[in-house]
Amino acid sequence: MTGMAVESKLSHTAAMILQTIHAGYIYGFSVMEMTGLPSGTVYPAMRRLERDELIRSHWEQQAIADADQRPLRKYYKVTRAGKATLEAAQKRYPLLVKLIPSPEAKHV
Amino acid sequence: MRIRRVVRTSRVPLAILQCASCLVPSRQRAEWTAEWRAELWYVWQRCNGQHSSQLCGDEDAVAFCLGAFQDAFWMRRNSPRPEHRSFRLESAHWCGVLLGALAAASLMVALLLPGARSKILRSPYRDADNLVLISPDGYLGATSPTIAIEEYQAWKRRSQSLFTDFAFYRPALDRAKMAGHQTAELNVAVASGNLFDLLEIPVESPALDEARREHRPALVLRHSAWRRYFGRDSNVVGKFVEVAGERAVVAAVVSDDSWRLPGQVDAWLLETERGLNAPQSSSLGYVLGHVAHSAYGTETRGDQWHMLVPREGGYDGFDCVSVAERIRQPFSIFLFALVLACLALPATTPLPLGDYPKTNDSLFWMTRRRRWIFLSIKIALILPIVYCGSLSLAYSKTSLDPITSQYIQIFFSFTGCLFSFRWALRDQRQRCPVCLRLLTNPARVGQPSRNFLAWNGTELMCDRGHGLLHVPEIATSWFSTQRWLYLDPSWNDLFREPYLPSAGMF
Known about the structure:
The complex is a heterodimer of chains A (108) and B (506).
Chain A: H1 3-7, H2 12-22, H3 28-35, H4 39-51, E1 55-59, H5 62-68, E2 74-78, H6 80-92, H7 95-99, H8 103-107
Antiparallel strand pairs in A: 1-2
Helix pairs in contact in A: 2-4, 2-6, 3-4
Chain B: H1 2-7, H2 11-21, H3 26-47, H4 58-78, H5 92-112, H6 114-120, E1 131-135, E2 147-148, H7 149-157, E3 163-178, E4 184-192, H8 195-199, H9 206-213, E5 218-222, H10 223-229, E6 240-243, E7 246-254, E8 267-271, H11 273-277, E9 284-291, H12 298-301, E10 304-311, E11 314-322, H13 323-344, H14 362-395, H15 402-429, E12 440-445, E13 457-461, E14 467-472, E15 483-486
Parallel strand pairs in B: 4-8, 5-7
Antiparallel strand pairs in B: 1-9, 1-11, 2-9, 3-4, 3-6, 3-9, 5-8, 6-7, 10-11, 12-13, 13-14, 14-15
Helix pairs in contact in B: 2-3, 2-4, 3-4, 5-14, 6-14, 13-15, 14-15
């Protein structure tokens, strides 16, 4: 399913999570901390976004995790389709950017 | 406080994750678990106070992990179904394996139930064709004893040309007192001493020979009774027990499968002729007769015949029912129900399997043969399933009288055959003639209002691209049965998708 097709279905919570990931909170627990949403909401929402190809995930390299003496972390990143969808969602929910500033906004 | 103490152990969140992971499809489980464990590590790091956070304490770890259930449910709902989960009956091989397993299971169940087991095993009597059960009521005579002891003894005394010998037995519930054992109530058949000789059941025991020589009663135990009431005592043979008011020596233990005649029997008290006569002379019993080989051929006599026995001032009529026929009766009942089911089948489903266009190549003959072999295998496996199943249902309770059991067997044999044949035909019609897999993706085509102007019905396709099946909504003179359309290999590119969800019209 393409980003344009799911654009109209993106709920406020999903848009907030997409915005959070876009803002640089790129693993599940950091998204939880930033949004204040429970794990039972955040992780299924991220799966849905990944299924709709708005975000994609990848595991970090083992060497990095070993150096920090911690388990491997799974990172999420907004795709091109996700960015287009997020722009539409930001117009629909203007407070999103104020709640979670985008990296571009931080630089300004 | 107690709950708090339990939650504070760090194993609880891991156990919750472990439980939740069971809901995740196996292909994704390892990755899913790794991600949640990694995330949990960060929750614990926060709780250990390395970083300031709102989340603090193991309760938060537990709350975090409880969210894993929602995630696991989502994964379960949204994961594509793997192909192997939809095999069930779609593949011809699995259909055959499933039916074979059912047939084996039903046979096992029937063999485990003593009542049904005795109907399946072959006759233990070598000369069953020449053994007859004599009663005034034919087959109904098996439900209860009908012949008086005096009558039996009168037949024994009279010179016979038709029969070589007679045996008598009278089943009754008797209390048996065993030395060193407790008293038990046994179903004891008080029988004439020649019963086992007539049936040709080998009972070779010095104790029996001695009892015969001394004209004393001997007790022959059934294996199940020996196990239940005598605690598998291997030295029981030769011991004395008091049964039916008499002191008898335990002469032998015989197999449970050696008794197929009417009456529930745990033991046989083999009496002398005088002993038979004494206290229960007015009691009724069953009489077995052994027909002389020279009398008539088995084919001439038939399975049941009537005879007249002269008495003072007239004749008494008796029916002689072959013991072999009695043993074969459950199978005869099944055959009768099978014929009835075959006659009733056209009323429940059309018999034609469809119109498959004839082609010149060898594929047509090969697929045609495969289809018929598959149908034959299905029917061949259905028959033992229904037969053993009906026997298990009809004869599982030994307390039921034989007539009721027969009615139960007829009912289940008939309904079982009818509905399983119906399923076999319907299943056959819904399969691809080439790969024998169930057809998928049914689609309605046409409109009922245009039935007489255009085509109206359902189309199904083989998900491997072998062809399409057209099933008319209403059978007409120009489209009476379903038609198969073979697709040539040029269509193969359209059928690369391994899994095509079916709308499930059938």
